[in-house]
Write a structure and sequence with these properties.
Layout (H helix, E strand, L loop, with lengths): L1 H22 L19 H11 L3 E4 L3 E2 L5 E4 L2 E3 L2 H11 L1 E3 L4 E9 L3 E6 L14 E4 L2 E4 L12 E6 L9 H7 L4 E2 L5 H6 L4 H8 L9 H8 L4 E7 L2 E8 L6 E7 L2 E8 L5 E4 L8 H11 L23 E3 L2 E2 L15 E2 L1
Parallel strand pairs: 3-10
Antiparallel strand pairs: 1-6, 1-11, 2-5, 3-4, 6-7, 7-10, 8-9, 12-13, 12-19, 13-14, 14-15, 15-16, 17-18
Amino acid sequence: MKYLRLVAFFLLLPLYCFSAFAGDPQAGTPTNGPSANAPHMSKQTRIELVRLLNAELVYVRSPFPMGRDGLKLHNGVVTPSGAQLAQLVATFGPAAKNGDAVRITGIVFKENYIHVEINGGPVKKQKWYERISVGGAGGETPVAPSDSNANARGSFVNVYFDHYIPEMTGQEFKQILRPVLDFDSKSVEEAYLETVPPKAKAAIEAHQVLVGMNREMVTYAKGRPPKKIREKEDETEFEEWIYGEPPKDVEFVRFIGDEVVRLETMKVDGTKLVKTEKELSLDPVTKVAQQHDEAKPAGTPTLRRPGEESDSPIPRTQTSPGTTRPTGVPDPGSTTTPNILP
């Protein structure tokens, strides 16, 4: 009899656990998305989503490339990413970078995904009648009027679901878009800080510069520099941003390309602190996007004669034996003028 009771207990235990789990309405239901057993999205819900999100101003959490290839979002994973996304941004240019404010301009519902466009979306294909033109002695004239959005420089993200688009609320769909779009930030700076590494975020909030930051991070941390100096050292061109003036501390932030490689601080008491060891490593997507923005077009107009160097090094001035002044800061008794950019 004792063995029969034990057998009955072990047989009824799984049934009891299953009934308890099924009776809990919150069990197995994700908090940031629709239920796994949700029905197909109704027509009324689609209309409400379009009304809620269309023309909404949001902030970017992941770089968007221009061109016909946008982003794909499925189960919280964004593709392409890493080196592949960096290559797309370098090839076609960035439609939006981390922290940029963009506007949702289109929402299209497909069978198992939702197509969300930002800033007008990508370049769209022309209709057959838009290619027809009538030619004559005065030239060719297109039959169809030109589309003002034909040269759109936006992008898009496709949000994929399993099998079909389930029923959900507007807040749930915003949470699904969270990896690429931020609906909660109140300012550009707040949105940008959510996209940088934690170490960089803490430094920006403390208004400090780290070796390895890019220009955008330094601007958010210290503001726009009052002075800039461009020079060349050992055939390597660099740019220094100068913050502060005596009798306060003066900081010299040196960039090679888009990366901080040296940070020099001149204290009021004459102490000089120099940091060259890299303190921060950035994602390759951020680096490529920044370099693409600063790329100069070929054939840029210039006043230099053919054969002249783009930049000439400025001689350093010795103030006293054994003491060298920081690069680009003139001696009060010298007539040398540094190459200071406004």
